[in-house]
Amino acid sequence: MGWRGSAAAVALLVVGIVGGYAASYALEPETGGTPSPVVAQSPSVPVDPLPPGDAQPSVAPLATDLPMREGRMGTQRFRLVHPVPRGWARIYNAPNEAKWKKVRNPNNTYLLRIEQVQSANDSIEETLTDRIQDLQEEEERFRVEKRTANTLEFTYASDGFLRHGFITWLDLRGTGFAEVEIAVTGRQVDAPGARQLITRVAAGMRQA
Q: Where are the alpha helices (DSSP H) in the chain?
């Protein structure tokens, strides 16, 4: 091979080496510049905390020490007399159930409900246990706050707001069964007034 052939071979070798480096560099990812965070493909969604306020902030919380008047309900076989706040109207009236609400208050503020439940022939303990199970199935974020032999205090979510409920069961005639169910439900801000209200209604409940 002459000197011309040797020179051509060397030139091809150099071109091949340079081309290989160039191709290698082109395939390498860039490592310079400011690193940026990698976006997760399936980020976990946190559970938003419930606002502790109320759906009707313009309505004042349920007050304590409310002036009371006498309310009545029931049939001739089992009539009840009980305290009810003045200025509250009966918004539902059935032979065995009545609901009371402050006049002109929106429905999602606070409510008093009284129901005769003696026809179920369940003890207070059985009624209370069944009610907890029902609430667990029906209400979002249900939580028992306090439970006694005949009372239940609980919280749950409704329309994105925290609600507070109280229920008391009474056996007025000593039958061994739950005869009367008293419930007060309100916003979280109504809890102190609701707690006192249900205690006063239960203490004043009697058979007519």
A: 3-27, 124-138, 191-204
